[in-house]
Amino acid sequence: MDLDLAQVRAFTVTAERLHFGQAAAELFLTQQALSKRVARLEDALGRKLFERTGHGVELTAAGRRFLEPARELVRAGEAAVAAARLDERPLRIGVWGHLFAPMRTLRTLVDREPGLAIELGPRPGFTEAMAGLRSGEIDFGLGRTHALDEPWPPAVTRRLVRLEPVKAVMSRENPLAGVDVLSPADLRAGRMWFPAPAGRVGFLAAFAAHFAVPADFAGINLGLDPFFGYLHDHPEHFSLICADVEVPPAADLHEAALAGPVPLYAWHAVWRTHERHAVLPQLLAAFAAAARDEGWLDHDPQRHWLPEEDMPSA
Hints:
elongated, 9 helices
């Protein structure tokens, strides 16, 4: 019998969730498409794998017997694909959160490990990066992950790799532009702006809610130059970006450090849990070395603030 790996993966994820809706979301499928894959697998095996109950779904006896070998089959398939591709291409990295300049972090790693065989490409956001991991279009992602309405998918590993201070940027005509250091509470006298819906900028939305800072999330993200140009032309607004992002002198903007507490922007790395690309261990080791040498994961709750979902694990 020739088993379809996509169908087997659909079964294993559903068996782990015991919920078709959650499994479909993890696999980036509709529930209808997921149900069809499971039904075709059951037809091929000649056995029912799930029993629908009033409370959801449960594995049948055949489903319980099939689960662990099915997991092994999925792992073997992923390992086979990784082995076949190993010598043919670099590790493909997708990045998002472009106004916070994720390339700076990767440039630091490449400077530390110049032999890293990586290939970079932008992703519109976290959801698109997760879809790229699932489809195999990318092998690794770097950006801020969002809160999920369900447990983190076991097929994807997530790791906090950097906590970066942010600063306020604004027109020199902004009423807040008279000082070089502001507290988050000071920002309540202004109005924060960012060119994206609040749902795509979880850090800024959480910051605004926590410190009661008025905020407008509107507009289109066209890159740093239009971003700086908007702030220059709209002195009623300020925005937040990572402290190391360079503001060109031609932008003619005021920059203010934040303190009391210092907000930290969290960068996460995500990759397929069973990824076997040879460059992955080198890249993770480079992240760990940079965190150790440059304090990328330093966090003091008395001096820093970041959203609860970004808190480092104890």
